Amino acid sequence: MKKLILIFMMGIFGISYSQKVPTVLKTGFSKEALQQKLEDEEGKAITIQQILNQHKGKVLVIDFWAGWCRDCLNALPKAKELEENNKNIDFVFLSLDRSKEGFEKSLERFDMKNKENYWFSTGWKNDFNNYVDLNWIPRYMVIDQKSSIAKYYAISPEDPELQQTIDKLLK
């Protein structure tokens, strides 16, 4: 009942939850953020630093998503299109699914098994997500060839600045 009242009040007063653009657009990562551990599909631990090292010298798009996130699922076709239109860059998918089982089911259900996927076993609140001001998903970041942040904040794979940043880095 409380939930219904809240939804009703949100509708009346036009309250909506959405991503809030960070006030500082960062260009690098803190030491703590780089040491944040994730898990790969086999359950092996890996740090953000190790992921970035694997892609050094390449342009990298980081896609934050989860199988329970309606906005993420609505964006998935355009995210796949962005990936298909940019075969010369790397993509990494960071899952905020709530459990290992949920992560595995999402990869299967949404045809993500053939991509580079990692899962935040620590949950949403962790050193990396806190550092990058992650307050909503989907979220996209572009990392340059030297592992610096070239595009800090995009909420849609259709954001024209995503492609513009990629194009600029490839010149």
TrEMBL record:
Question: Where is it mainly found?
Answer: other
Which SUPFAM superfamilies would you find in this protein's record?
Answer: Thioredoxin-like
What UniProt keywords apply to this chain's record, in alphabetical order? Cytochrome c-type biogenesis, Disulfide bond, Redox-active center
* BP terms from Gene Ontology: cytochrome complex assembly
Under the heading InterPro entries, the entry gives: Thioredoxin-like_fold, Thioredoxin-like_sf, Thioredoxin_domain, Thioredoxin_ResA/DsbE_sf
A Gene Ontology term for the protein's cellular component: cell envelope
The source's domain of life comes to: Bacteria
Coiled-coil annotation reads none
Thioredoxin domain residues are 27-171
State its location(s).
Answer: Cell envelope
- List the Pfam families hit by this protein, alphabetically: Thioredoxin_8
Instruction: Please state what the protein is called.
Output: Alkyl hydroperoxide reductase
This chain's source organism reads: Chryseobacterium culicis
